[in-house]
Specification:
- With about 190 residues, the protein is an alpha/beta fold.
- It has one domain: Ribonuclease H-like superfamily/Ribonuclease H (Nucleotidyltransferase, domain 5), CATH 3.30.420.
- Helix content is about 35%, strand content about 15%.
- It contains six helices and five strands, in the order βββααβαβααα.
- Strand 4, helix 3 and strand 5 form a beta-alpha-beta unit.
- A five-stranded mixed β-sheet has the order 3-2-1-4-5, with helices on both faces.
- Helix 4 crosses helix 6 and helix 5 packs across helix 6.
- The termini are far apart.
Length: about 190
């Protein structure tokens, strides 16, 4: 009997995910924004995109810097969705997908806590792909860049990103850097 773990990774879709949160601890802080791109794992073409603001329930626990980064102001989050609704959207968007991101373990840590808190089952692949080690491998012996921040790496590849952090904009930048690195690695093989 074939299980979901028997699916060849090459045919799985990739779910590029970026979150904005109210802090660094998923036990006390919340997800306030999600940006996703569902990408075909074979040809790396975008299938769909998704973004949503999530209405925080405990904004009083937010760290000022964390909510400053995405430009949180209550008026902009007035019509935001509930966390549970957004999590359900993600589950329906990308069954069996491999989750990809820039420092993806941080985003996955928050998502896992949220799925558990709401008792929502998901069937994403258990592997995660972090784009930072791919960038590290590429830049390890190259001059001209001295950090592995998303904006710095994107600028090196002449990928334009907005100054204001937002989940969808950041994940689009991550996707473009990933695609560029994959094209470089593909040429070498």
């Amino acid at each position: 009997m074939m299980t979901k773990n028997d699916i060849d990774f090459r045919v799985r879709n990739l779910l590029f995910v970026d979150l904005e949160t109210t802090g660094l601890n998923p036990d006390i802080h919340e997800i306030i924004e999600v940006g996703c791109l569902l990408v075909n794992g074979k040809n790396l073409k975008v299938i769909s995109e998704y973004s949503a603001k999530i209405k925080p329930k405990h904004i009083n626990t937010a760290t000022p810097k964390a909510i400053e980064v995405p430009g949180y102001i209550p008026l902009l989050w007035e019509n935001a969705k509930s966390e549970e609704e957004v999590l359900g959207d993600l589950v329906r968007l990308a069954p069996n997908a491999i989750v990809v991101g820039w420092k993806v373990d941080f985003d996955w840590w928050f998502l896992e806590h949220a799925f558990e808190r709401h008792r929502i089952s998901y069937d994403f692949d258990y592997h995660l792909i972090d784009v930072i080690p791919l960038a590290y491998a590429y830049f390890r012996k190259r001059e001209g860049i001295n950090g592995l921040g998303l904006r710095r790496v994107a600028a090196y590849f002449k990928i334009k990103m907005e100054e204001q952090h937002d989940a969808l904009g950041d994940i689009k930048g991550t996707y473009k850097v990933f695609k560029k690195l994959m094209s470089i690695y593909d040429k070498k093989n």
